[in-house]
Amino acid sequence: FIQIPHMVWNADIMLEALGDSSVNIHVFVWYPKDDWSQAQPILLATLKRALDNAAIEIPFPQRVIWSGKD
Hints:
single chain; two-stranded antiparallel ribbon; 1 helix; alpha+beta; two-stranded antiparallel sheet
């Protein structure tokens, strides 16, 4: 359940896939299409804040390249 001032959404959250260096989740919400461009950034910021509050990090993918020398 996500609450945003003046907006309330019931979200369905689904684990889509386990990637090489990711966990892909989908969040499904209903909101009127006419206001979506204003609501989307608020929703993304709210989801990010929820992940931060739960101590769930989104790491930057890193790769180590070794040339075989040394």
